Amino acid sequence: MPIPRILLSTLALGVLVATNLTATASFAQQAPAPSVIVAPAKIMDLRESVDFTGRLVAVQKVDIHARVSGFLEKINFTEGKKVTAGTVLYEVEDGSYQAALQQVEGSLAAAQAQHDLAVIERDRQRQLFASNTTPQSKVDIAEAQLKKAEADLVSLEGSKAKAELDLSYTKITAPFDGIVGLTTADVGALVGPDSGALVTLTRLDPIYVQFPVATALLLEYREGVKSGKYSGGANVGITLPNGRQYPEKGTVDFIASNVSQGTDTVIVRAAFDNADSTLLDGTLVRVNLEQEDKQEVLAVPEQAIQRDQQGAFVMVVGTDSKVELRRVDVTRSARGQAVIASGLKEGEQVITDGVGKVRPSATVDATPAAGG
User: Fold this and answer.
1) Is residue 19 over pLDDT 70?
2) Residue 291 carries which DSSP code?
3) What is the pTM of this model?
4) Cβ neighbours of residue 302 closer than 8 Å, sequence gap 6 or more
């Protein structure tokens, strides 16, 4: 009896499905384990730190002014270069000041001669009075003339001191070591006390960085110092606008005693060595305050931390290459590392790359991270 055509079709379909299922199972058995990157949980020095935005401020910065009037004869510096304290920056025409000093010196010499004559006359009148040959009134007049001569000397000595001072002001000097800016006056210009700043002198070594700290954070830190949680000192570092870390560490040397009411912050200042003038006045930088004492903690790379509604977890790869989901308590992050309070042990391997390809209990092909 011939087999019905519909039955033959059903049998063929069943064979095809069975073949496909067998092929799928065979492929699943032969599929390679997913590749992941792992890193070990490590004990490392991860001191607590906090970042702020700060601005560099020159230790000393002054505008140089002319203190006497006259024409500029010389400019003795190169703009933008360093000068030392006492360097003569400008020379003002001094002829009139030399003449004024000579005139006062001449008047002072004449006044000294008058004084000497007044002393002689006073002494002579005293002798005559002692011999009863002159009245007391003449002695009194001689005494008064001497006092006037002495007063003239004092006045002229003051005039001489002023003339000498004015003459010294014709040479405008640098009050401290620093870098000179652009001059606002050229040789031949008429300058004086009302001419404004001739140049700005800036001292960059050392240099300050000033940054605002939230009052609550400052109070928390001080309480931590009292309780022994923190040491009294801190390492201060700065990151430049180009992202480079400045190699020198700074020292906090000032904390303001008042709070800015607009921002509820306190100004803190740190000093940095700046021998090569890398740090420039007014630059905006990132300031990092780091705990001074070592703090050994267990940590893993931040990218290993996953989160869901129940909290933080990591995928741990055991010695049998199987994956385990492990709940962890993350206290903080620092320098790309997550600090683990509980849930992991030192040396356990956590997945840092490829976590999306695995599930708990899956077998993986784990490769250590570079440097891990």
Assistant:
1) no
2) E
3) 0.68
4) 333, 336, 337, 338
Place of tokens 């999306």: 356
Q: Domain 95-168, what fold?
A: Helix Hairpins (1.10.287)
Say whether the peptide bond before residue 206 is cis (omega within 30 degrees of 0): yes
Q: Tell me, which fold does domain 67-92+170-201 have in CATH?
A: OB fold (Dihydrolipoamide Acetyltransferase, E2P) (2.40.50)
Residue 74 CB-half CA count within 13 A: 11
- Return the closest-CA partner of residue 174 out of 94, 279, 90: 90
Residues forming CATH 2.40.30.170 domain(s) in the chain: 49-58+205-291
**CATH class of the 49-58+205-291 domain in this structure:** mainly beta
CA distance 101 to 159: 8
Q: Are strands 35-40 and 365-368 parallel, antiparallel or unpaired?
A: parallel
Looking at CATH, the fold of the domain delimited by 35-45+296-368 is given as 2.40.420
What CA–CA distance (Å, rounded) separates 362 from 352? 16
Tokens, residue 303: 């990218």
pLDDT in tens, 194-225: 999 999 999 999 999 999 999 998 888 888 77
Distance CA 327, CA 305 (A): 10
Six token digits for residue 227: 């309780």
Measured CA distances, 262 to 44, 127, 197, 265, 266 (Å): 40, 82, 33, 8, 11
Instruction: Give the integer Cα–Cα distance in Å for 314 and 307.
Output: 8
Round to whole Å and give the CA distance between 215 and 82.
Answer: 39
Please answer whether residues 350 and 358 qualify as being in contact, where contact means their C-beta atoms are separated by less than 8 angstroms: no
